[in-house]
Amino acid sequence: MLNALLLDHVDYDVDRLRLVNAILDTGSRAYGPDFMRRINAVIEQMRGVPYKVVRNVYLLPSRDLGVIAAECFAHRKRPWTLRHWFSDAVARYAMRGIATEADLLSYLYFDDCYVRHLLALGRNDAAAHAEELLAFFNDEDLDATEQRPRAGRLSSHGRARTAAVQRAR
User: Distance (Å, rounded) from C-alpha 21 to C-alpha 19?
Assistant: First the structure.
């Protein structure tokens, strides 16, 4: 449920970005290299800014962040103060009914263990996609309409946390 509320918007935005990129690319192929200049003459009068193709890389974590958060939460050291007991009780209550995914916990729980795991995961995932990222940041020509999310889908709703990195061409 939480992923549906928060992450569907990211997927929608990336899908829409790629649709606009595909329309602009198709227009250039169908009507020639003058297409962008001609359409932007009208668009700039209407909107004040031209259309442009936005290159993007869309990476998904290779592990479920909710599972990592739940593992760190389960293995944390538990001091026995009233403040910690109350925090623990609130976290357990918040996770009730979603403990298998622990998506809520992955949004709220940022202790040392979880952050270390997130950093390592990010580094490993970036290393696994180094060629793609280097091509993107080195402005090598990528087909903006054919790029797909990388790694596996992670939640029951088919959504995962994303890093949508975008830059105008």
Answer: 5
Look at residue 93 and tell me whether its pLDDT is greater than 70.
no
* Residue 60 contacts residue 152 (beta carbons within 8 Å): yes
| H-assigned helices in 109-150 | 112-128, 130-137
Sorted by sequence, the CB contacts under 8 Å of residue 44 that are 6+ apart come out as 50
* CA dihedral sign, ordered 34, 35, 37, 41: positive
| Residue 155 pLDDT exceeds 50 | no
* Residue 104, pLDDT score: 67
Rounding to the nearest 10 degrees, give the CA dihedral for residues 80, 83, 89, 91: -110
Here the tokens at position 1 are 């449920």
